[in-house]
Design goal:
44% helix; 299 residues; alpha/beta
Length: 299
Amino acid sequence: MGEMRFDNQVVIVTGAGRGIGRGHALLLAARGASVVVNDAGGLPDGTGNSSSPAQDVVAEITALGGKAIAITDSVASEAGASHIVAAAIDHFGKIDAVINNAGIYLGQAIDAFDIDTFRRHLEVHVLGAALVLRAAWPHLAITKGRIVNTMSASIFGMTPYSAYISAKGGVLGLTRALAVEGRPAGIKVNCIAPAAATRMMFAAMPDLSEDATAHYKRLLPPEAIAPVAAYLAHADCAVSGECLAVGGGRVTRYIIGETPGITRPELTPEIIRDELSAIMDTQGYQLWPDTESLERATT
């Protein structure tokens, strides 16, 4: 069927100054996209800022003959998110896809976290994605565009990262909601759960030896995430409302399922206790529900 190209396509990539986002931007540009490289240039915990990461990626792209601009606003700011989208329109005239990759990562136990840190995670991951998409939505409706959000395997449980995991759970909910909302306009919305040797990963494992660090860098290069994001950002993408996990060349699908469970007209706590094994039994589970079913249920 030929190479999947992005010629004459415009893609916004947030958090594109380093790691996974940089990989997205470079691959898309290599395949013909005009890329809006957004990165505030902060540390993994979200503090600080620098224009260098975004500008360096743009320099890499232009040196290879590609097209890109650098925008250093924070997605967590309403004005910043709007400026990112406005810059895409001013420079390139349209928006075909948005990849929300910007994020922060800081571990704090539930009985010791700082509320501002928790709030900042939600503001960057969830509100930041929503603000960018709110501004981009009318333009994506014109192009029947694509949205790729960034989730995390950490939603299955990890300590002590309750703020980060809560934010990533919100990203999954946002993805499912917008997949339904975008269907009438032809907008497809999916997310990825990447596993990669990034600054954030190593911040979560500060005691790794040099050998272990080198091992993870070989096993999980950040650039290996980009092909999945590029597929989901392409016009040929055939799914919506899905989450694909990717790392080290392996790609899987996360599913939301429901067990057959039990039905008792008069439930009691004792029934739950005595029939818990039947409720928990995954045999015969069903995917619940896909975004098309959700749309039918709300109309």
